[in-house]
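Dear colleague,

Thank you for sharing your sequence with our group. We've completed the structure prediction you requested, and as agreed, I am returning the results in plain text so they can be pasted directly into your records. Please verify that the sequence below matches your submission; if there's any discrepancy, let me know and we will rerun it promptly.
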Amino acid sequence: MPKPKKRGNNHQRGAGGQPRNVQPFSDEDASIETMSHCSGFSDPASFTEDGPEIDEEATQEDLEYKLKGFIDLTLDKSAKTRQAALESLKSAFSSKNLYEFVMERRMTITDSIERCIKKGKGDEQCAAAGLACLLCVQMGSGIESEEIFKTLGPVLKKIVSDGTASIQARQACATCLGICCFIVTDDITELYSTMECLENIFTKAYPRDRDTNGVSSTHNTVLHISALLAWTLLLTICPMNEVKKKIEMHLHKLPSLLSCDDLNMRIAAGETLALLFELARETDADFFYEDMELLTEKLRALATDGNKHRAKVDKRKQRSVFRDVLRAVEERDFPTEMVKFGPERMYIDCWVKKQTYDTFKEILGSGMQYHLQSNDFLRSVFELGPPVMLDAAALKTMKISRFERHLYNSAAFKARTKARSKCRDKRADIGEFF
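Please find the predicted structure tokens below.
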């Protein structure tokens, strides 16, 4: 009689088994503010007076142990396991400042990213490209980052230019190429080469001379948008003589993209135009654009668009953006925005700064405020100076009581109610229905 087969628990697989269960980087992990390089930093709102004491060293060791496990899993045979590990590393890198941890393992992580981009497909390539962006954000500018870009740059360019690769992978690699080049390169030749690669992509969105009916969106439109935005980011760090060349080359062609069927392409083209006009006027106070009347007419139409075939949400978003673009082109004006992070404030007062802020916010997500507080590179980009380190006594004095917070919120609610009631007349809202 044959012996019964042994039945074991195969959750952790070996070669050829089922994919491993990867425990992702959780919100609980992200809430630990004890990582190296910023252990004395904290958000005043998160400070608790009578909270339990935390063993920072043990917590840090636990978190680093998890991250080492994720790095190992990026070499797994299962594509799903590799992708889950990449996503977990992305979550950790976006929510924490891990400079010392990353510095020791930068080449290992770089090799994993390169392998996943080269051999992976679709979602895995997107995750790897996103991790490459965050790796460079963690490292900042320096020799080590340049080594990373020398390894990944050619791979990213190859995927971006590969017509057989998935559109999502090409889109992610285009964004990654622009951000990594912005962060690490001091080589002007490499900067121009990267911009040329991106130009070769988004200029395909320009209509042909024989096509006078505007631009129709295609499955490549998302790629064209990413390439255009990445190119625009790199333009902000170009020498002025190169900026002039690029303005002469593209300023007369970009308005054609304002007629694209895709809302995001119209917005990307409009914001790029606003930035180009800002840079042009910085280089030449008497800058003159020949087709200004036609351009402002187009922008005004988009700022007051009432097309019934478009979704109301899309129309609101478009009108909001193009009102600002029109003011920038016509009146040289920019609506200043204030960004709060911890006890600090940052004012976004020009299109160059807005483009840079929006780009990093897109890749860092909810971790943007944390990195603005603690990341040396990001603070240098926005000229914020060294990180502000606050001790426990300072945090206690800054923390307001629950009762005071309740009074403040009540007053703010009443003020909003009064302000909105004045705008509820039917005549004030009539524009929303067209």
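Summary note from our side: Strands lie at 337-341, 344-348.

Kind regards,
the structure core
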